[in-house]
Design brief:
The chain has 582 residues and is α/β, with parallel strands linked by helices. The chain folds into 3 domains: 116 residues, no CATH class; 152 residues, Reverse transcriptase/Diguanylate cyclase domain (Alpha-Beta Plaits, 2-Layer Sandwich), CATH 3.30.70; 270 residues, Alpha-Beta Barrel (TIM Barrel). The protein contains 22 helices and 16 strands. α14 links the parallel β11 and β12. α8 packs across α9, α14 runs parallel beside α16 and α19 packs across α20.
Length: 582
């Protein structure tokens, strides 16, 4: 019994050694957690062998084993077999545990890759498929179309009026609107259609259809446009956005993914250019126009640098006397091969390509040189693109040119539209304040057709408001034309702002603008914008003729006579193209 107790006591020493190892691990002396799985398995097997050996030594069994090996003839062979069996069993245990560990690791890795692929193909904001997933699905759809002979149409959608929502109500509201739009798309596409968000406010739908069903894509675009055109309620806001769409079809428009995407984008651009809520199908003419646009963009940089785009000048007229008060500089491009390229064509290209600031400053520099010859009392008006307001050094760049050309700041008037204020109101305030403090006059252009915000009139440093020409040209059709325009002019006057009537094309419109209180008018009634030489002639003449063949003109003539104003007649018109139309 004593020997048994002694043996048991000795066996109890083994857990104590193991506990010592565990204590060392917990204390950080053995950083097992930093080992690889193979190192951990090897350490485990080594520890088991060490424990067995320690047990043999502690129990005094080593002598018995050696004696057994010495006295038995086959003991060495048996010992060798036992060792090999033990090692094989250990290796089998090790292999099984490694296989189980690797299987577990492989399952975890496969699940992680599946999650990563799912995340990589999903749009974070809306949960729709993203551009990567769309391109992959489009490639598969084209492959199926090649085998089956069916057609694949790609519909690109762009939200109308989304940017003002973001700018006015914040990006959080914009994100909620995008999620709502995405939800409506998901609910209204058919099972055979694939919907994705490309980014921003642009979405895409893939529609596969038979060659005989040519209107399938148009019908899908019409259906989705109607659904997405419904009002969206976000908190207390009731928001309505439209949808413009462009469509390109495989194989009639393109035979590969990249070309199909590009041509659908061209069609979308044409739809937005045509007007809100439009749908455009790609055709070869669009492709030619895009190529021409690319050519114009490539030539634009060199043309600006060489002075190929020059200012022409439209006069600003005092409607009471016909006196020429100043000129607005308008960009004109006479291309050596393409002929006259209108500003509506090359200005958007300059804005998209980042050349608009260079173009505007080059125009200002040239216009200042021309205006120095007019006389010290003539003002010069130039236009600022909304995109330029992102350039915080714009005011300094303008003032540097004025100083270099020796042009007085008091003679310059800078015009910008309300759309520029909506997108860059804080940046615009800094730029306009800097110009205003230097003596430059500030004019709000196209007032009456956009936001017409009283906040802009009262908070920004404007000196003048220019009524939009579409608003002015509608005077002839209004039942009481003076009522509305007179109210606008009185409002501006009460805020200390002068008013210019833009787009006057008839004598009646000039008279109505004058009666409403506009201090300046401009438009085709006085002629088109003219060259620098013709503008100099007009400045030297000093006045243009105002018609006197109507009752309103007779009354105006009586008023002018009473005030000592001299009125010109047709024979005094300059030979520069200015005319009076009645």
């Amino acid at each position: 019994m004593a020997s048994v107790a002694t043996a048991i006591g000795r066996i109890n020493l083994v857990p104590a050694s193991v506990r010592a190892v565990g204590t060392a691990i917990r204390a950080g002396h053995l950083r097992v957690l930093h080992w690889t799985s193979v190192q951990r398995e090897a350490a485990l097997i080594g520890a088991c062998i060490a424990i067995v050996c320690l047990a043999i030594l502690e129990l005094g069994l080593a002598g018995y084993i050696f004696a057994l090996v010495e006295h038995r003839p086959d003991a060495k062979r048996d010992a060798l077999i036992l060792v090999c069996f033990t090692l094989s069993a250990g290796l089998a245990v090790f292999s099984f545990r490694r296989w189980r560990e690797l299987t577990r690791e492989m399952a975890v890795r496969i699940a992680a890759e599946a999650r990563a692929n799912a995340l990589a193909s999903k749009d974070d904001l809306t949960g729709l498929a993203n551009r990567r997933a769309l391109l992959a699905e489009l490639a598969r759809a084209i492959g199926r179309g090649e085998r089956s002979g069916c057609q694949v149409s790609l519909l690109l959608f762009d939200l109308d009026r989304f940017k003002p929502v973001n700018d006015i109500h914040g990006h959080q509201t914009g994100d909620k609107l995008l999620r709502t739009i995405a939800s409506r798309l998901r609910e209204n596409v058919r099972a055979s259609e694939f919907v994705a968000r490309l980014g921003g406010d642009e979405f895409a739908v893939i529609v596969s259809h038979g060659a005989e069903d040519a209107l399938a894509a148009v019908n899908a675009a019409t259906r989705l446009t109607q659904v997405l055109g419904e009002r969206v309620r976000i908190g207390v806001l009731d928001i309505q956005v439209g949808l413009s769409s462009g469509i390109a079809t495989f194989p009639t428009d393109a035979s590969d993914v990249e070309t199909l995407m590009g041509r659908a984008d061209v069609a979308l651009y044409r739809a937005k250019e045509t007007g809100r809520g439009c749908c455009a199908l790609f055709n070869a003419q669009m492709d030619a126009e895009i190529r021409e646009r690319a050519d114009i963009e490539a030539e634009l940089y060199e043309t600006i640098a060489s002075g190929g785009i020059v200012p022409h000048y439209q006069p600003l007229i005092d409607p009471r006397s016909g006196r020429v008060v100043g000129f607005e500089a308008l960009a004109r491009w006479e291309h050596p091969r393409r002929g006259f390229i209108p500003p509506s064509r090359f200005i958007p290209i300059a804005e998209d390509s980042g050349l608009i600031n260079d173009l505007s400053l080059a125009m200002l520099r040239r216009a200042c040189r021309d205006a120095l010859g007019w006389g010290a009392d003539f003002m010069l008006a130039i236009n600022i693109s909304p995109i330029q307001l992102a350039n915080r050094s714009l005011a300094d760049e303008i003032l540097t040119i004025l100083k270099a050309e020796g042009f007085p700041t008091r003679r310059l008037e800078v015009e910008l539209t309300e759309s520029a204020l909506v997108s860059e109101i804080e940046g615009a305030r800094l730029i306009l304040d800097r110009l205003k403090q230097s003596g430059v006059s500030i004019c709000l252009d196209d007032f009456g057709s956009g936001y017409s915000s009283l906040r802009h009139l009262s908070k920004m440093p404007f000196d003048r408001v220019k009524l939009d020409q579409a608003f002015v040209q509608g005077l002839d059709m209004a039942s009481d034309p003076l009522k509305v325009i007179g109210a606008i002019v009185r409002l501006c006057t009460s805020l200390g702002l002068a008013c210019t009537g833009e787009g006057a094309e008839t004598a009646e419109q000039v008279a109505l603008l004058r009666a409403a209180g506009c201090t300046l008018v401009q438009g085709w009634y006085f002629g088109a914008a003219v060259t620098a030489g013709q503008a100099l002639e007009l400045a030297q003449k000093g006045r243009v003729q105002l018609a006197a063949s109507h009752a309103w003109a007779a009354e105006a003539a009586a008023d002018d006579a009473a005030s000592g104003v001299f009125r010109l007649y047709p024979q005094s018109l300059p030979a520069s193209g200015y005319r009076a139309r009645s």
